[in-house]
Design brief:
The complex is a heterodimer of chains A (about 160) and B (about 775). Chain A contains five helices and five strands; from the N terminus they run ββαβββαααα. Chain A is α+β, with helices and mostly antiparallel strands. In chain A, strand 3 and strand 4 form a beta hairpin. Helices cover about 25% and strands about 25% of the residues of chain B. Classes of the chains: A alpha+beta (about 160), B alpha+beta (about 775).
Chain lengths: ~160, ~775
């Protein structure tokens, strides 16, 4: 298939690439750019493991063609920490025991980050809703919800 | 600091620990939260090929011909293998499962051919180009039907569909006890196929070097036993005396699914062997559902009786288990089911027999609890029914029959530490049993016993540890344990850090590689904290003794006056010598010595004897779950309002991780109770995806409370017992009992779907029809 040009910003770095039209964003990230933090858990948008932020909004990278992301800013789990400082959500996941096998973690974190960016006052129900399309087999979700709540609470205190 | 505390009527000295008992974050959490952690999905070797497997189109058929010409001609295809091309590699402890089938297939999951190609897409296309001609055979899917003489045989050479397994025991005299019993129940319960649903799908990479030494990167819970299985495959290939190295990347969940080695691992080895290049096979989600081994369905007949005071007199159980077409550890789950059957509550006379039956379904595997959830569903449902028959309060009935410390059960299990009475109390107090309630709301409880101190299934239940310390006081721990997300690396780091007076951050635990890590029988039976923990503790004690002797020599202070903590030796509260300084001195000196120790721990438990008597675990874990549900009588939907899970864990080494095991286990148990089911229609998996296989989501997450009962076990590392599996064991019967309490209908078949609840309500109300069957378009009877 003929490759087409793609200009894209990933975790703050600008890329000029040529990709096949059927290449998914997840394949681009994982196979071409070695950003393996986003995971393929189902390949059909149901498990949430491949979630990344596109211009601040969570998207399923397994259902997004790389070319659809043309001109956008993508953030993956590798881009959450800034200058060696963990994102408060990462810190909270670690401290609350929200990570077990870790396979769903990056997708959960990106969904939570999307929520925190777009709805910093989110309550328990909104948090559950934000991660309702993400499957975790280890934690029973309890500690993931607590971890996100703790960060949302903190951002509330600041206001 | 020393603190006296009254516990279980005996006074004991409570030490203050620096890291044991603390809510310490998982040592691998940062890597996993930053995307650094590498799973099999993330690994690529130079020159690596992509393997793919072709599965059968029939549940039972003769293979007439496998045409591979077109696949072989496809550019990019390196190797194509069929059952006729390879030596007879057979899988599973029963060796009834050929790696690639020749002559006959026995299930839709049967592997018929495999390819290796330069690209996953080419491999997929090559698979579609393989022409297989089949001649269909009559098939059998119901294990009870499969036992009838006219049933088609899954393995003709076996002469019968019944596996020749010795699952039968009788302790005491059940028939005599039946005559003595005043109250009796007799019931049939059934459970269905459910599957592990690990978020990381299965995968393996096999790589030979030029001397034919093999490295296998694979998701496994049993690195040392996998090494042995892979060696056997090499032997069949004619490769002798070579090294097999098993490397485990991060594992995206185990839950028992990785207790055996599977076709994809051995297929990767064969493809790599013939292609002379590394080969990776990675399952897609649909393949994960279809080609991994689920927990098997069971049909259980139980009768149980008690005297007029409510004391259990006998328990009589028989079971039929669907083994599927081949044999893996699923066929041995009755050995663990024996534990709750003979020993959950005091019951003097017990009889049990189990039949594992070949069918043309997928083959079964153990899953979190190893048969215990199926057995406990029947036992704890029947306990409620018996209590009602005897007119005794359900909580009181369980108190009367509770196991107690010092008991020896009919199977010969020696109950040492036992917090079951406290667990029952915690649950009954929290849920206020007996309180009057609104319509449609009910409470239920159920208890569990599980192995908490290893389980002697093999001749050894051992685990090795090697510890070495460096010039800076940092500790490397090489353990046989397998961390698959449950947190064993963290628990081991805490145990070692506590013993050596260092911080958890100072300890690096290696578990990933059979070339550097010692032997272990695997991560099963909730044994890792207990067995690997004791192994690590023993090695750390050896190091500690040597450090103390060296420090005493270096400082001239008697060993018993030296306190090792905070990375240094203290005398009368003052630091006198940092560990790092002592170690540098010992290494960097003429005739120096290396600070290294090893320890192999094999717990003092017993193999079961011929009559299945024997103390299989060094100690036992107990727990009670309680739940309050609300049942919508119009829709049959069950809502969980409150959940409490009380567990006797010996000691909570890390309450944060312990909570995680309990919450995760409980939600998995809730799924087992209410929603999860592999819908198997004539051997075909009808719902191989997350839309149709209903794993619970965050919207279904329940408000659950984990109560920790500490009994400080004499044998456990710092008093700890295992907790990996118990969280999902009594969940289903607790919920079934609560539903009965709420609306007076008892569901005896899992999962308890709204359809089943509704049908039971209608039946109770005398309604004959339960609506139109979607498939047949006919009125269907209720049940």
């Amino acid at each position: 298939m003929n490759k087409q040009p793609l200009e894209i910003s990933i975790n703050g770095d600008c890329y000029s690439l040529a990709v096949e039209p059927n290449r998914t964003l997840l394949e681009l990230l994982r196979e071409d750019l070695d950003l393996t933090g986003a995971k393929e858990g189902c390949g059909e948008g149901v498990c949430g493991g491949c979630t990344v932020l596109m211009d601040g909004k969570p998207v399923r990278s397994c259902l997004t063609l790389a070319l659809e992301a043309s001109g956008t800013h993508i953030t993956t789990v590798e881009g959450l920490a800034q200058k060696g400082e963990l994102d408060p959500l990462q810190q909270s996941f670690i401290e609350h025991g929200a990570v077990q096998c870790g396979f769903c973690t990056s997708g959960m974190l990106m969904a939570a980050k999307g929520l925190a960016l777009n709805n910093p006052h989110a309550g328990n129900k909104e948090i559950r809703n934000a991660i309702s399309g993400h499957i975790c087999r280890c934690t029973g979700y309890t500690k993931i919800i607590e971890a996100v709540e703790a960060v949302v609470d903190r951002s509330l205190e600041k206001r | 600091m020393i603190d006296d505390q009254e516990r279980n009527g005996k006074k004991e000295i409570m030490e203050e620990f620096t890291v044991i008992g603390k809510r310490i974050s998982k040592v691998d959490a940062v890597d996993k939260a930053t995307g650094r952690a590498l799973y099999i999905q993330d690994l690529k070797l130079p020159g690596m090929l992509y393997g793919r497997i072709l599965y059968s189109k029939y549940p039972h058929a003769h293979i007439i011909r496998v045409g591979t010409e077109k696949a072989k001609a496809l550019p990019g295809v390196i190797t194509v293998l069929t059952g006729e091309d390879i030596p007879p590699v057979r899988l599973g402890f029963y060796k009834d499962n050929p790696l690639l089938k020749a002559g006959k297939v026995r299930s839709y999951r049967d592997e018929v051919a495999a390819v290796a190609a330069t690209d996953p897409e080419i491999a997929r296309e090559a698979i579609s180009l393989i022409d297989v001609t089949y001649e269909a055979l009559p098939a059998i899917f119901d294990p009870e039907e499969a036992l009838k003489p006219e049933a088609p045989l899954v393995h003709e050479e076996h002469k019968t569909n019944l596996l020749k397994m010795p699952w039968s025991l009788h302790y005491g005299d059940v028939e005599a006890a039946k005559l003595d019993a005043v109250f009796n129940v007799s019931e049939r319960f059934s459970t269905t196929w459910v599957t592990h649903c690990c978020m990381g799908t299965s995968g393996a990479i096999a790589d030979f070097d030029h001397s034919n030494n093999l490295t296998v990167y694979t998701n496994t819970q049993i690195p040392s036993l996998a090494q042995k299985d892979f060696q056997e495959t090499l032997k069949i290939l004619g490769v002798k005396d070579k090294r097999v190295r098993v490397i485990k990347p991060c594992i995206g969940g185990g839950f028992g699914s990785k207790l055996d080695t599977y076709a994809y691992e051995h297929m990767a080895i064969l493809l790599a062997w013939y292609a002379r290049r590394p080969v990776k096979i990675l399952f897609e989600r649909e393949e994960e559902f279809i080609a991994t081994s689920p927990r098997q369905p069971t049909v259980t007949y139980i009768s149980m009786g008690c005297d007029k005071e409510g004391r259990l007199l006998y328990r009589d159980m028989s079971m039929v288990l669907d083994n599927g077409a081949y044999t893996s550890w699923g066929a041995t789950t009755p050995s663990v089911m024996m534990m709750p059957i003979t020993s959950l509550y005091r019951v003097p006379n017990v009889r049990y027999s189990a039949k594992c039956v070949y069918t043309n379904n997928t083959y079964s595997q153990a899953m979190r609890g190893y048969g215990n959830p199926q057995a406990t569903f029947a036992i704890e449902s029947a306990i409620d029914m018996l209590a009602e028959a005897a007119g005794i309060d359900r909580v009181e009935f369980r108190r009367i029959n509770s196991n107690q410390p010092g008991d020896v059960t009919p199977q010969g299990l020696r109950i040492t530490s036992c917090g079951l009475p406290e667990c029952i109390e915690a649950v009954s107090k929290d849920l206020e049993f007996g309180r009057s309630r609104e319509n449609g709301v009910g409470v239920g409880l159920a208890s569990l016993i599980h192995v908490g101190g290893g389980a002697r299934i093999y001749k050894s239940d051992g685990c090795g540890t090697i510890i070495k310390m460096d010039d800076y006081g940092k500790v490397d721990v090489f353990t046989g344990a397998s961390d698959m997300g449950q947190g064993s690396d963290t628990i081991i780091a805490q145990i070692v850090a506590e013993e050596l007076g260092v911080q958890v951050d100072d300890v690096h635990v290696f578990h990933q590689d059979t070339d550097i890590c010692p032997w272990d029988v695997g991560a099963h039976a909730s044994r890792t904290t207990f067995v690997a923990g004791n192994s690590a503790l023993g090695a750390a004690k050896k190091i500690r003794l040597r450090l103390l002797a060296m420090a005493s020599k270096a400082t001239g202070v008697d060993e018993d006056k030296l306190v090792l903590r905070d990375r240094a030796f203290f005398v009368e509260g003052k630091p006198v010598l940092p560990i790092a300084k002592l170690l540098r001195g010992s290494h960097f000196t003429p005739r120096g010595e290396m600070m290294m120790a090893d320890n192999f721990y094999d717990p003092p438990n017993e193999n079961m004897g011929k009559d299945f008597r024997g103390n299989m675990s060094a100690t036992y874990s107990f727990g009670t779950h309680g739940v309050r549900v609300k049942v919508d009588e119009a829709t049959g939907k069950v809502e969980i309002l409150d959940y409490i899970a009380a567990h006797d864990v010996g000691r909570a080494i890390n309450p944060l991780l312990l909570d995680g095991q309990v919450h995760g286990g409980v939600l998995m148990g809730v799924g087992y109770a209410l929603t999860e089911q592999v819908i198997m229609e004539n051997g075909r998996n009808m719902n191989p995806d997350f839309r149709d296989y209903k794993v619970l989501t965050a919207m279904d997450a329940i408000h659950s409370k984990a109560v920790v009962i500490e009994t400080i076990d004499d044998q456990g590392p710092f008093g700890a017992k295992g907790i990996g599996e118990p969280g999902c064991v009594p969940t289903a019967p607790a919920i079934a009992n609560a539903i009965y309490d709420a609306i007076g209908v008892r569901i005896k078949d899992l999962p308890i779907t709204p359809e089943k609840v509704l049908a039971a309500i209608k039946k109770k109300n005398g309604t004959v029809s339960c609506g139109i069957d979607a498939f047949t378009q006919k009125e269907q009877a209720c049940e």
